[in-house]
């Protein structure tokens, strides 16, 4: 299982708290950008993090491809792929990268969707939620071969009703 969060917008404490709860309990921790923290901040030790449209520190990468639990996990904030207007451009990039899972932020709303052979996940926002679910949230992803379970949690680490999804891909 790995953890995904995004769009913390200067709230270092929430990143620290989520990281403290899960570090050593999950295979990886991801932050999909818009932290507005320095890339050298110690909170990023052991966290895969990318630049969002509000991150101006040149130490961040625009995207990363990481192997986790035998899966190729792509992480990008998504703004460079216009994810606010759909996942077409990001899905082409994910396909080029041969990603099994593609993580993104930017829209501050939960998304768990399969396009082709790739699972796309937006964990919502840990500080500024938008849309139907006005809840500060993050997500976990359980991986077993071609089976995935995505569960969204409140900042109190409680599962959110109606936001748990299972996918079989392959």
UniProtKB/TrEMBL annotation:
Pfam families referenced in this protein's UniProt entry, alphabetically: Metallophos_2 (PF12850)
EC top class, as a word: hydrolase
NCBIfam families per UniProt: yfcE (TIGR00040)
Descriptive protein name: Phosphoesterase
Calcineurin-like phosphoesterase domain sequence ranges: 2-145
Source organism, top-level taxon: Bacteria
GO molecular function, one term: metal ion binding
Record keywords: Metal-binding
Cofactors, names only: a divalent metal cation
E.C. code: 3.1.4.-
Similarity-based family: Belongs to the metallophosphoesterase superfamily. YfcE family.
CDD domains to which the protein is assigned, alphabetical: MPP_YfcE
Organism of derivation: Lactococcus termiticola
């Amino acid at each position: 299982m790995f953890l995904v969060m995004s769009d913390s917008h200067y709230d270092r404490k929430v990143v620290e708290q989520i990281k403290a709860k899960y570090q050593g309990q999950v295979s990886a921790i991801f932050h999909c950008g818009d932290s507005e923290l320095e890339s050298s901040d110690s909170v990023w030790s052991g966290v895969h993090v990318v630049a969002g449209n509000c991150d101006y520190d040149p130490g961040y990468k625009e995207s990363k491809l990481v192997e986790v639990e035998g899966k190729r996990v792509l992480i990008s904030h998504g703004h460079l792929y216009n994810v606010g207007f759909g996942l077409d451009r990001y899905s082409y990039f994910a396909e080029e990268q041969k990603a099994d899972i593609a993580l993104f932020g930017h829209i501050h709303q939960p998304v768990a969707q399969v396009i082709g052979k790739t699972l796309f996940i937006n964990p919502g926002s840990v500080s500024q939620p938008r849309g139907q679910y006005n809840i500060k949230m993050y997500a976990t992803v359980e991986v077993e071969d071609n089976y995935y379970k995505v569960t969204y949690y409140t900042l109190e680490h409680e599962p959110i009703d109606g936001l748990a999804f299972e996918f079989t891909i392959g």
